[in-house]
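Hi F.,

I've been meaning to write this up properly since the lab meeting, where we talked about keeping a consistent format for the predictions we share between groups. The idea is simple: the sequence comes first, exactly as it goes in, then the structure tokens exactly as they come out, then a line or two of notes. No screenshots and no reformatting. I'm using this chain as the first example so we have something concrete to point to.
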Amino acid sequence: MNSKSIAFVIMFAAIAIGLNVIRVPAIYWPGNFYQFCEIPVVVAFLLFGAKIGLFVGVIHVAGQLMLFNYGPEWVPGYPVAFLALLVMMTGVSVGNWFIKRRVESNKVVDGKRTAIYLTAFGVLFRGGIMPFFDFWVFYRILLPIALAIPIPDSYIWGMMPFFIIFNATVPLYSVSIGYLISTRVDRYLKIKPQAPTKV
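Output, unedited:
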């Protein structure tokens, strides 16, 4: 990476870490929160591609573990949240491929439709994959190890609707807002985006 790329990584990672202080309670899931710290990572992915996006995400997780470690459950929680973001961005990448195919077929895809497609694929991937990871891996293996206590299966089954709702709703704001910001940043910095960001 050149010095310019390193500067962007540091800038976006710092913004992401700073946004950890903002939390919006998920009213259907006491103790869980919606956060905006994923948005700078999404913007980095959209503008600069997976390499810089990954660097921003890894630094962000390291910052979370150092500055916002509220208990043992957060040690596996932050990396799993980053995994969920990667799954979501895989969906966004598939959405980007889908948009390119439509453009090649002479279909008109404007900025609004691009945002809808990218968000929809992000919802489809994260909402379709991560609830099962949460159920089978996080709450059955990782969290019991971190807490040193087993978690009853009946409790995990009861949480399944919350896993689905949460993972399906996070992309609705993180991808759509990330796309909107990336279009504005692209206009000022003249970056060749890795996902379609023209409106």
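Notes:
Residues 3-189 form a domain with the Arp2/3 complex 21 kDa subunit ARPC3 fold (CATH 1.10.1760.20).
Strands lie at 23-25, 33-35.

If this format works for you, I'll send the rest the same way.

G.
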